[in-house]
Design brief:
The chain has 463 residues and is an alpha+beta fold. It folds into 4 domains: 3-159, no CATH class; 165-305, Immunoglobulin-like (Sandwich), CATH 2.60.40; 312-395, no CATH class; 397-463, no CATH class. 16% of the residues lie in helices and 35% in strands. It has 6 helices and 26 strands. It has helices at 3-6, 10-20, 85-99, 141-159, 313-326, 422-431, and strands at residues 32-37, 45-51, 54-59, 76-82, 115-120, 126-128, 161-175, 178-187, 193-196, 213-220, 227-232, 247-250, 255-262, 271-286, 292-297, 301-305, 332-333, 342-347, 358-360, 370-375, 378-384, 387-392, 399-401, 410-414, 435-437, 455-460. The strands form 5 sheets. Strands 6-5-1-2-3-4-7-8-13 form a 9-stranded antiparallel sheet. Strands 9, 10, 11, 12, 14, 15 and 16 form a 7-stranded antiparallel sheet that branches. A 4-stranded antiparallel sheet has the order 17-22-18-19. A hairpin with a 5-residue loop joins strand 14 (271-286) and strand 15. Helix 3 (85-99) packs antiparallel against helix 4 (141-159). The protein is elongated, with a radius of gyration of 30 Å. 37% of the residues are buried. Residues 1-25 form the signal peptide.
Length: 463
């Protein structure tokens, strides 16, 4: 196998090195390759190579554009072209830096490789090694290798012929209380690109398993502090049937779409948002040089929202129900600081649950509390609170007065009014158990006379 090809896979390069010492056939010193685990969490590598006066860039992972140019290079691809004298000189200097290392580092088992050189030195030595740390090498070695690699990736990305190039962009609009997100995949290269459909994606972040997912979001144009995001995968995809065998194939010059219906991670205000995101795809199937895991960013677009999200009480109720489920394992201990204002509900041993949510403000502490259940019109202690869970936003309606429309479906309990006669107390004890009330139903009276002031508390959708 040609040495420059060996460098295009750090894993293959490492396997060769481990099994045969250098594991490389004699090759011309002007042929070389370097792999860099870019600035991504899935260890997707970008590699550059030089052979016969031509460069080859295989960009599979997000890499910075270089000093003073923080904007990312979008997408993934394979690029080739005639190398400039300036870029050739950088690669020779990198080769010489590798060849000047008198003792090659020993890698720590299990560590992620950050740099992979594959070179032939002037003295005939052939070095192919995956480096997981520069700490044992002479000072400045890392900068002499990583910085020019970043610069060369940028140069080859901008000037190379697109043998293969996959880009993506996102659009999003409100639909049915969620956001309809469409990913547009664009092949601007000369070769068909194929990858496993989002119908197979896990839809969550897990760098150990290299789980596939897309994460998209928006940042408000007039306020960088206001943003939202969504994680996308098979559970949210709604056009799986468009792709036979769960594979998306994109011929050169064509586009394909994947649509999702999903909840964002939080509320946001109406207005114009800069929309973008990125994806990790564990299985690129074609072309051959891009096979394996990739991680890349999307092209930026604009999303306009005419209404706040959620747009009405019904959507708010559904969104809060989703958020309660998603945050159920996000527990807060007594004495912990409150990071997000809202209504929280206390839980104790054996998962006992307080009937009465508590409004807490950011910066306060989750309090110690004796939890209560209301049965037959009277409250009884069920033990101390040990943890708290998020229940609703601070401006949500978790209480309602008799005669009002019910703000949300679920179980409700009435609070005991003051000044009841003995007969009124008896009637209250008979009628004051929890009851299920549907959204927009009138909050009921209990036959206590003038009970228009009776306040009901929302228990949630519990039995």
């Amino acid at each position: 196998m040609n040495k420059v090809r060996v460098a295009f896979s750090s894993l293959f390069c490492f396997m060769l090195f481990s099994q045969t010492g250098t594991g490389m056939a004699k090759s011309d010193k002007d042929t070389m390759g370097f792999g860099l685990n870019g600035y991504n969490m899935s260890n997707a590598e970008s590699s550059i190579g030089l052979e016969d006066g031509k460069f080859l860039l295989v960009m599979k992972g997000q890499v910075k554009r270089g000093s003073g140019q923080p904007a990312p290079m979008h997408g993934i691809g394979v690029f080739e072209g005639a190398i400039s004298d300036r870029d050739r000189a950088k690669m020779y200097a990198m080769r010489n830096t590798v060849c000047s290392i008198k003792q090659l580092p020993r890698n720590t088992p299990g560590n992620t490789f950050i740099f992979v050189p594959s070179v032939t030195c002037d003295d005939g030595r052939e070095i192919a090694i995956a480096i997981d740390s520069f700490s044992s090498l002479p000072e400045g070695t890392g900068a002499k290798l990583v910085t020019p690699t970043e610069e060369l990736v940028k140069s080859f990305y901008e000037t190379g012929d697109k043998v293969a190039k996959l880009d993506a962009s996102t659009s999003m609009v409100p639909k049915d209380g969620k956001l309809l997100v469409t990913l547009k995949f664009i092949n601007s290269g000369h070769t068909e690109i194929a990858f496993k459909s989002p119908a197979t994606w896990e839809g969550y972040y897990d760098p150990m398993s290299k789980a596939s997912y897309a994460e998209v979001g928006g940042v408000k144009s007039t306020n960088e502090g206001e943003f939202f995001s969504l994680m996308l995968g098979r559970e949210q995809m709604i056009n799986r049937s468009d792709y036979h065998d769960d594979i998306i194939r994109i011929p050169p010059g064509q586009v394909r779409y994947a649509s999702f219906l999903a909840y964002p991670d939080g509320r946001f205000k109406k207005g114009r948002y800069s929309a973008g995101g990125g994806a990790v795809i564990r299985e690129i199937l074609a072309p051959e040089k891009l096979r394996g895991v990739v991680e890349f960013t999307f092209q930026d677009t604009v999303a306009d929202f005419v209404y706040d999200y959620p747009a009405n009480q019904k959507e708010m109720n559904a969104f809060e129900a989703y958020r309660r489920k998603r945050l159920f394992d996000d527990i807060h201990g007594v004495g912990d600081g409150v990071e997000e204002a809202g209504y929280y509900r206390a839980y104790g041993e054996d998962n006992k649950r307080d009937d009465f949510p508590v409004l807490l403000r950011k910066g306060e502490k989750f309090p110690g509390r004796t939890m209560e259940h209301q049965v037959g019109g009277s409250r009884k202690s069920i033990g101390p609170a040990t943890i708290w869970r998020w229940e609703a936003y601070p401006d949500s309606k978790v209480s309602a007065v008799t005669g009002e429309p019910c703000p949300r479906s679920g179980y409700w309990i009435p609070g005991m009014p003051s000044g009841l006669s003995a007969n009124g107390l008896y009637m209250f004890s008979l009628a004051a158990d929890k009851r299920r009330i549907a959204e927009n139903e009138v909050m009921p009276r209990l036959g206590l006379g003038n009970d228009s002031y009776l306040t009901w508390t929302w228990l949630g959708d519990v039995t």
